Amino acid sequence: MVQISTRHEVAGSIDSRKIKVLVALVQTAAAVDKFLDAELHDYGISKAKLLTMKVLLANGGTMTHTALSKELSRSKHTITVLVDGLERDGLVRREQHSSDRRSKNVVLTEKGGGFLKSTLPICDQIGYTAIGQIDVEQAEQLKALLDKIRQSVT
């Protein structure tokens, strides 16, 4: 028979309320992930590709693979696969880095910028549907808490 220790017997145990929060976080992440997949499917682009392009745009339209990898918390291999697909679709291009000949920049193309502009209405609608029921202050609090959680696990 397996004996389960009570929370008082386990050093550094976590409060059951925090476990419920963790379960809710995982369930919410899965639901949001499924929702985004369904909404973006009609546009023929994945969340990962769209997010990569949005991060590029937010950083002046050009970043190295390494910077993208860090910003998106993805492996360099995953970034390479994403960029390959975006490049094949003409949404980004690779250019030689100006000061490091071993490195390449990923650059958002005019077509990529146009595509992002065309997705603004759907992105706004997705955002409203996903978090429209919380006010700006709550959204800022949630972001701060999520950042804190993400920092503790990365």
Poorly predicted regions: none
Q: Provide the helix percentage.
A: 55-70%
- CATH architecture assignment name: Orthogonal Bundle
Number of helices: 6
| Total domain modules | 1
Instruction: Sketch the topology as an H/E string, one letter per element.
Output: HHEHHEEHH
> What share of residues are in beta strands?
5-15%
Structural class: mainly alpha
- The CATH superfamily is Winged helix-like DNA-binding domain superfamily/Winged helix DNA-binding domain
- Overall pLDDT metric: 87
What's the Cα radius of gyration? 20 Å
Can you count the beta strands?
3
CATH C-level: Mainly Alpha
Output the CATH topology: Arc Repressor Mutant, subunit A
Major sheet summary line = 3 strands, antiparallel
Distance between the termini: 36 Å
Shape: globular
Overview of the molecule:
By secondary structure, the chain is mainly alpha-helical. The chain has helices at 16-41, 47-58, 65-72, 76-88, 110-131, 136-153; strands at residues 62-64, 92-96, 104-108. It has a three-stranded antiparallel β-sheet. A hairpin with a 7-residue loop joins strand 2 and strand 3. Helix 3 (65-72) crosses helix 4. It starts with 15 loop residues before the first helix and ends with a helix.
